[in-house]
Design brief:
The chain is 28% helix and 11% strand. With 198 residues, the protein is an alpha/beta fold. It has a domain at 27-160: Lysozyme-like. It is elongated and about 90 Å long. The model has no long low-confidence stretch (mean pLDDT 89). The structure holds zinc ion.
């Protein structure tokens, strides 16, 4: 029976048990599937491709569909097979897409739903593993186009966009607290006005 990757990770690969990380994860590595968006790719299909490359089932830990649906692959405690030489203590998160029909180039084709879900996953993983220090793109670790854009730069830019919460409150001068104070304020304003007009 085939595994339901939407329900949870594969606890054991078709070639046997997975290898544990040597410690808590320190890095999240973002990938694209380099498939044309909407072509029906899912974790089960990726698992078949990875098994054909002698991997022990799917190499990624998570997959995000165009509509934001999440699928699981390897359990978080297990090393993935997603970035050569960096699979220990890293979590591989992949989004579906990255390729335009007829093109070999990798692109950032993420939908808003995917961007939202990726950030949700990163927050959850950071909460679960305070040891996680950074989110990088596959291409930051090895020579590849994946995931088709500069992950760190895009995430830093997003963080610096002002949100309504960050906007400073509008400051108004305090009103005079008494009628006498109001008269004194008018008097000071008149004195200042005539002083300037001399
Ligand atoms: Zn990749």
């Amino acid at each position: 029976m085939s595994h339901d990757y939407k329900a949870g990770p594969l606890e054991r690969g078709p070639r046997g048990g997975f290898t544990r990380h040597s410690g808590d994860p320190h890095t999240i590595v973002e990938h694209y599937s380099w498939t044309v968006p909407g072509d029906g790719t899912d974790m089960a299909r990726i698992a078949k491709w990875h098994e054909a490359r002698s991997f022990n089932g799917p190499g990624y830990h998570m997959l995000v569909h165009e509509d934001g649906t999440r699928e699981f692959g390897r359990p978080l405690w297990a090393r993935g097979a997603h970035v050569g030489g960096h699979n220990d203590r890293t979590i591989g998160v992949c989004w579906l897409g990255g390729r335009n029909r007829g093109s070999e180039d990798g692109h950032d084709t993420r939908t808003d739903a995917q961007k939202h879900e990726l950030e949700a996953i990163y927050s959850e993983l950071r909460a679960q593993f305070p040891s996680i220090k950074r989110v990088v793109g596959h291409r930051d670790l090895t020579a590849t186009q994946c995931p088709g854009y500069d992950v760190a730069a895009a995430r830093a830019k997003k963080k610096h966009q002002p949100t309504p919460k960050d906007t400073p409150p509008v400051t108004r001068p305090d009103p005079p607290e008494s009628p006498a104070g109001a008269l004194a304020a008018i008097w000071r304003a008149l004195v200042a006005f005539f002083a300037r007009s001399k």
